[in-house]
């Protein structure tokens, strides 16, 4: 029968293992003084260190913004289609009627859009309408035309606002600006 590990006779017992001691010299402890305490203890004149002034670099457009601007230029340079001509005939009164209809569909009024123009409200509503596809990383005009090509019936008023806009700022979705 093999000897048991517990108990047993003295010849089968192992000697007790000694505990490891690292000594007091190599002992790791937390620092006793925090940096703020050491600064307070020093002379106030010595504490006054002037940080280096960082000059901001000139603002460069984000890569996504550059891509959307290029898409917008391509879309605008195309010849006018029948939808484009119809959209150019949309009057300001038609835009107001469209927006009143969209507002009537809501239960509560929009709170944070009082200081936006009618055109910006229409474009932001289009941005947030997921039925026309994603709005991030694509120009609004290209998104409208893609939705039209897929027979999703995007509102002609949105195309009217996009075609009448003089700047390419209106080509980038508001959500896209927030996300990048």
From TrEMBL:
<feature type="compositionally biased region" description="Polar residues">
    <location>
        <begin position="9"/>
        <end position="40"/>
    </location>
</feature>
<protein>
    <recommendedName>
        <fullName>DNA polymerase delta subunit 4</fullName>
    </recommendedName>
</protein>
<dbReference type="InterPro" id="IPR007218">
    <property type="entry name" value="DNA_pol_delta_4"/>
</dbReference>
<feature type="region of interest" description="Disordered">
    <location>
        <begin position="1"/>
        <end position="44"/>
    </location>
</feature>
<dbReference type="GO" id="GO:0006261">
    <property type="term" value="P:DNA-templated DNA replication"/>
</dbReference>
<dbReference type="GO" id="GO:0003887">
    <property type="term" value="F:DNA-directed DNA polymerase activity"/>
</dbReference>
<dbReference type="GO" id="GO:0000731">
    <property type="term" value="P:DNA synthesis involved in DNA repair"/>
</dbReference>
<dbReference type="GO" id="GO:0043625">
    <property type="term" value="C:delta DNA polymerase complex"/>
</dbReference>
<dbReference type="Pfam" id="PF04081">
    <property type="entry name" value="DNA_pol_delta_4"/>
</dbReference>
């Amino acid at each position: 029968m093999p000897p048991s590990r517990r108990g047993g006779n003295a010849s089968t017992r192992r000697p007790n293992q000694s505990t490891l001691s690292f000594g007091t010299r190599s002992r790791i402890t937390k620092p006793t003084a925090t940096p703020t305490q050491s600064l307070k203890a020093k002379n106030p004149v010595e504490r006054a260190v002037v940080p280096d002034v960082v000059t901001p670099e000139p603002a460069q457009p984000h890569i996504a913004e550059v891509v959307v601007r290029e898409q917008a230029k391509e879309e605008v340079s195309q010849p006018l289609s029948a939808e484009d001509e119809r959209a150019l005939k949309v009057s300001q009164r038609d835009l107001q009627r469209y927006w009143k209809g969209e507002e009537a569909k809501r239960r509560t009024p929009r709170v944070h859009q009082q200081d936006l123009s009618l055109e910006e409200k229409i474009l932001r509503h289009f941005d947030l309408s997921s039925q026309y596809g994603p709005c991030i990383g694509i120009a609004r005009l290209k998104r409208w035309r893609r939705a039209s090509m897929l027979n999703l019936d995007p509102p002609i008023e949105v195309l009217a606002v996009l075609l009448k806009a003089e700047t390419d700022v209106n080509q980038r979705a508001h959500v896209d600006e927030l996300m990048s």
